[in-house]
Specification:
Oligomer: heterodimer
Number of helices of chain B: 14
Number of domains of chain B: 2
CATH superfamily of chain A: MetI-like
Number of strands of chain A: 0
CATH class of chain A: Mainly Alpha
Strand content of chain B: under 5%
Strand content of chain A: under 5%
Order of helices and strands of chain B: HHHHHHHHHHHHHH
Radius of gyration of chain B: 24 Å
Distance between the termini of chain A: 61 Å
Structural class of chain A: mainly alpha
Structural class of chain B: mainly alpha
Number of strands of chain B: 0
CATH topology of the largest domain in chain B: MetI-like fold
Shape of chain B: globular
Radius of gyration of chain A: 24 Å
CATH class of the largest domain in chain B: Mainly Alpha
Number of helices of chain A: 11
Chain lengths: 312, 336
């Protein structure tokens, strides 16, 4: 008996394919969220990070003060919870009479933007170069790898300080300085993974079915390493935020007219004896954010990629 | 075999050092505008002839590759150019500040090792105990805390409130210490000056601890996880079953093997030590290299910044070379 294979319209097949993808993705997300709930520290970290993001996004709605203009009559007022504090300024004011809470909320914008953008672009550059180097090898790989080795020879902060010293302070410059070295780690991870995945059977199989190199890299290999990259990237966001704050503390990062936690800590140093809160409170905000990001990242690692434990 | 491995590592690090020097040289080209203009201040009352003279003095009138060649050949000879501001050789300025920085860095490393080793080992031996949980929570805080902020908190608590330790500097103003090696602890020991010794040690505590704490946190975590791994390995089970005392099993069999990954991490932490150095020296007004660089950046003293960044980077390369050599000795697999 002869059977004719059912003819499927190409568009129908595409819809069918994507519906399967969507289902798989939903299943994975559900699974991930279930595991996240079972991981209390990661969950708490994630929630605090979301609160920071919301505060940064809705800063003008949360506070009515201008982060850059102060009332000199109210300078160096202590936080409301200690003697002499005013409830108008819950966390006190700085030397120019600016509300500290307002500046901290606006400062979250800078920290989050610098952290996320610098890591995001580093991941992008590092992944593309790493994938090309690891897959094709050859001259391109040799050149990029040597350059990466050279950048590895610099301690990160020294490199960032060196670059900032010459290009000058500013948000874009700072992000550029961080990316300039930040991509190297992602390059090395992706390149290494590419080289080992390339020899796996599924890659051979994809080759046999006639898939092009680019399709193999993007559609076959990448889904297998994307989780490790994601975990590593999350871990690095906290580090970049500390890096930005350190540079701003030195006066080399964010220019003084933009509220940033590092420069706020620095500006409070002169008043340490009379107004301890100006320096310490922005630092607490910074530490809680970095701590939460790291808790979340470590949770992610436990859930998604336990094997990363040794390298990160 | 080991000797060949080591020689290979030494040879590999030479081109890296040259590459580092080239990158540092190129840093200067990132500056928007002409270095001499910036140096003189825009619109300054300097004649064109003087600017030309300065340009040729700093080799800025020559093509880029000639400048690079001059920079590299001079650097090999230990000449890193002249400071724009202080008009003295950069190498002399760095040499003058180096003892203070090394003294602080060694103190920090000492703090880091003293704190991290017992914690890392005991947390692994008594896994999930109260000590383990507390110290790992502490270590987690340590890696999430910026050094400059921790320094300020420590100053507020121990110097401003409790008056136990000095706020800043290397030594009391009234301490009579004759010039010597520049290492104040060593100098005061050599001259038998008790007051100066106590004063300089007191000044080292807060900055040394601040700089070392972050490294201690990372080391403790790494040591704990690699100890957990080695403590479960076959050779440790074997050593135990042979009736070897527990301390011997932990320290000799487990620790020795756990040291291999730890040593690599120590090498990487030298980078943190060097970078943190600039921050911590600024916080504690420590008169070392880091504080000088930060000041030089604001004075736009580019040769001094360039030379110092190069010293930092070369130190990092050398430190990792030493770590690699140590690693070769520690790792029995390489001997085969």
């Amino acid at each position: 008996m002869e059977t004719t294979p059912p003819t499927v319209q190409p568009t129908n097949r595409l819809i069918h394919l994507w519906s399967i993808r969507l289902k798989l993705w939903l299943r994975d997300t559900k699974e991930f969220l279930r595991e996240l709930i079972l991981h209390p520290t990661a969950l708490i970290g994630g929630i605090i990070v979301i609160l920071y993001i919301l505060a940064a996004l809705f800063a003008p709605q949360i506070t009515s003060y201008d982060p850059t203009k102060g009332n000199l009559r109210d300078r160096l007022k202590p936080p409301a919870f200690i003697e002499g504090g005013m409830k108008e300024y819950p966390l006190g004011t700085d030397a120019q009479g600016r509300d500290l809470l307002t500046r901290i909320i606006y400062g979250a914008r800078i920290s989050l933007i610098v952290g996320v953008v610098s890591v995001g672009i580093s991941v992008l550059i590092g992944s593309i170069l790493g994938a090309l180097s690891g897959f094709y090898r050859g001259k391109l790989d040799a050149i990029i790898s040597r350059f990466a080795d050279l950048l590895m020879a610099f301690p990160f902060l020294i490199f960032a300080i060196g670059v900032m010293a010459f290009i000058g302070s500013g948000v874009t410059n700072l992000i550029a300085a961080l990316i300039f070295k930040g991509w190297v780690e992602f390059f090395r991870v992706v390149r290494g993974e590419m080289m080992s995945e390339k020899t796996e059977e599924y890659v051979e199989a994809a080759k046999v079915t006639g898939r092009g190199n680019l399709a193999i890299i993007v559609r076959e290999i990448f889904p297998n390493i994307v989780q490790s990259i994601f975990v590593l990237a999350t871990l690095r966001i906290g580090e970049m935020i500390i890096m930005e704050a350190s540079l701003s503390f030195l006066g080399l990062g964010i220019p003084p007219h933009i509220p940033a936690w590092g420069s706020m800590v620095a500006s409070g140093r002169d008043f340490m004896l009379v107004a301890w809160w100006v320096s310490t409170i922005p630092g607490i905000a910074l530490m809680i954010l970095v701590l939460s990001i790291n808790l979340f990242a470590e949770g992610l690692r436990d859930i998604l990629d336990p094997r990363l434990k040794t390298i990160a | 075999m080991k000797a060949i491995k080591i020689l290979e590592r030494v040879l590999v690090s030479i081109p890296i050092m040259f590459g580092v020097a080239i990158i540092v040289f190129l840093f200067m080209r990132l500056t928007p505008g002409d270095p001499v203009d910036i140096m003189m201040g825009r619109g300054g009352a300097v004649s064109a002839g003087e600017i030309e003279k300065l340009r040729s003095e700093f080799n800025l009138d020559k093509p880029l590759h000639v400048q690079l060649w001059l920079f590299l050949t001079d650097a090999v000879k230990g000449d890193l150019g002249y400071s724009y501001v202080q008009k003295t050789p950069v190498t002399d300025l760095i040499r003058e500040r180096l003892p203070a920085t090394i003294e602080l860095a060694l103190t920090a490393l000492l703090f880091a090792l003293i704190i991290s080793f017992p914690i890392g080992i005991l947390s692994a031996v008594w896994q999930n105990s109260l000590l383990d949980r507390f110290s790992m929570a502490g270590a987690f805080m340590g890696i999430s805390m910026p050094g400059f902020w921790m320094g300020i908190i420590l100053i507020l608590v121990f110097a401003v409130k409790l008056h136990w330790l000095p706020v800043q500097g290397r030594i009391d103003f009234d301490a009579q210490l004759a010039a010597g090696t520049g290492f104040f602890v060593l100098d005061s020991l050599l001259s038998g000056n008790r007051a100066a010794l106590i004063s300089s040690l007191k000044h080292l505590v807060l900055p040394g601890f601040t700089l070392g704490a972050g490294i201690a946190a990372i080391l403790a975590r790494v040591l704990r996880s690699s100890m957990l791994e080695t403590l479960r390995s076959d050779y440790v089970v074997l050593a135990r079953s042979k009736g070897s005392p527990e301390w011997n099993v932990v320290l000799k069999h487990a620790l020795r093997n756990a040291l291999i990954p730890t040593v690599t991490v120590i090498g990487l932490q030298v980078g943190v030590l060097l970078g943190g150095n600039m921050i911590i020296e600024t916080v504690f007004s420590w008169p070392g290299l880091g504080r000088m660089v930060v000041a030089a950046i604001f004075q736009r003293d580019f040769p001094l910044v360039q030379g110092s960044v190069m010293v930092y980077a070369i130190t990092f390369v050398l430190a990792n070379l030493i770590v690699d050599i140590l690693y070769t000795y520690l790792n029995p697999k390489i001997a085969l």
